[in-house]
Amino acid sequence: MVMDQYAARGEPVRTAGLLVDKASQLVQRVAVPSLVQLVMRVALAVPFWKSGILKWTGFLQLSDTAVTLFTDEFMLHLPGGPYHYPAPAVMAFLSGCGEILFPVLLVLGFATRFAALGLLFMTLIVELTVPDGWPVHITWAAMALGIMAWGPGRASIDHWLRRKISGT
Question: pTM to 2 decimals?
């Protein structure tokens, strides 16, 4: 009934519609797709980088703690489990490498979809290891899937290479 009065007059409804439209345009100007893609790349890279940096004591030198975690602490929570990781030293090494390499690739925007796929796979493994962390893990998975679906954006080496290759 109140809406009918406004609709009959038209002016307040039209004014509200214009305000909503202006607010929407402002939000779109702030949330430029390339900026959003860059922020998603960095946001996904940071937690993995921070974890990876703790696994190393030097160039290709895993910390004893990293191997111990995969040997004694980390368990795969699968049906009938939990189970110890197979080849814990290898798993610690691969995890440490992925947690350094993939974030660097993401931030640079180089082989971006591949790096996001790698971090999505690592997120799955982390979820199987720490199932109670799913609220954070699903956020990581959503960011990785978004990057894989929409690419790295203009602020990336991938975009620059694509332009150089296509000649535009």
Answer: 0.81
